[in-house]
Design brief:
Length: 83
């Protein structure tokens, strides 16, 4: 096996492992912390004191992962196509 084949194989295996791990993460834990409020569900007001509900996560502090969103969309397409 040449060094070029070895490097290509290592890259392919690494990409596959990362993909499988992210897929498992989306299946096991479909939600992640909201990036806007850092998972708190509330954000500070711009003027004055106090906080308000985060509009991105609607106050839950959680958002659906991109991979899970794509998975749900693909399942809905399949379900609608096979009716």
């Amino acid at each position: 096996m040449t060094p070029a084949h070895l490097i290509a194989s290592a890259v392919i295996v690494t990409v596959l492992l990362v993909t499988v791990r992210y897929t498992a993460e989306c299946y096991i834990r479909p939600f992640r912390r909201c990036r806007a409020c850092h998972g708190k569900g509330r954000k500070p007001n711009r003027i004055g004191r106090g906080t308000h509900e985060c509009r991105h996560c609607r106050g839950t502090g959680l958002r659906l992962r991109l991979g899970r969103h794509l998975w749900n969309h693909a399942r809905a397409l399949h379900r609608d196509a096979t009716r």
